[in-house]
Write a structure and sequence with these properties.
single chain, about 240 residues, alpha/beta, Ribosomal Protein L25, Chain P, 2 domains, six-stranded parallel β-sheet, about 25% strand, elongated
């Protein structure tokens, strides 16, 4: 069943109008007709079943129970990647349960986001996050942010646990830190996981992270690409905290 995010706060029996984007998708792309039903996540991230009326308004049939979000809030903090990898990271991290997705201009980032194009870039990534959240039947759309530096990101992001995926740790055979961190993370806490760009994380950035008591972890024995590492981390988080 199709799922849409809407801004109004709903309750059973309510009647509401579709916004232009939802209306176009449901009525034209999906060829919805009166009597069809879809799921709607309201402005408080509560889930409801809605039925399409003859005038193309929607009546709220009932509230639905849902338990699809990770038990911890994961912030993905990635150094700016090249080409369209940011779009890939946003889409797939959303599908896999990230709460927030952030990018920072790393010391060794090749890509640069021009200030005059930044708002347009974030708007596009936010739209990708919404589409992925609908496809994955989530009740939360990750917010996408950009920081000028890792220092700014670490200072402004709130987290209970800070982790950095470091390829040198993987090369040296580090195997335990990720598991230990997830084992001590409690439900509802926030983990900020840092990933370098294609060039990696600079020594200066590593020192900053270590000064902020970051857990330095290898993600298995293989060296992962910048767009793959966040997905490994999210999969590990889901496996350890949801499937046991």
């Amino acid at each position: 069943m199709q799922r849409y995010f809407i801004k109004p706060i709903l309750k059973s029996g309510d009647r509401f109008e579709l916004d232009s984007n939802v209306s176009k998708h449901w009525l034209q792309v999906m060829r919805g007709v009166p009597g069809d039903q879809a799921e709607f996540v309201d402005g408080q991230e509560d889930l409801y079943l809605g039925q399409l009326n003859e005038d193309h308004s929607v009546t709220v049939v009932k509230a639905l129970e849902t338990y699809v979000e990770l038990p911890v809030k994961v912030t993905i903090l990635s150094g700016l990647p090249k080409q369209d990898k940011a779009e890939w990271i946003v889409q797939k991290s959303t599908e896999m349960g990230a709460d927030t997705i952030c990018f920072f201009s790393a010391d060794w980032s090749v890509a640069k986001w021009q200030p005059n194009k930044l708002n347009k870039k974030i708007t596009r990534l936010q739209k990708i996050a919404q589409g992925a959240a609908e496809q994955a039947h989530r009740t939360h759309i990750p917010t996408v942010h950009y920081f000028n530096s890792l220092k700014q990101a670490v200072a402004e992001l709130e987290s209970d646990h800070l982790l950095v995926a470091y390829e040198e740790a993987a090369k040296q055979g580090e195997q335990a830190q990720l598991v230990k961190l997830l084992n001590r993370t409690k439900s509802g806490e926030r983990i900020t996981a840092v990933f370098g760009p294609e060039g990696g994380i600079s020594p200066k950035e590593m020192q900053l992270l270590e000064d902020n008591q970051a857990t330095v972890a290898g993600l298995g024995p293989r060296i992962l690409r910048t767009e793959t590492a966040p997905l490994y981390f999210l999969a590990a988080t889901s496996t350890m905290l949801e499937l046991q």
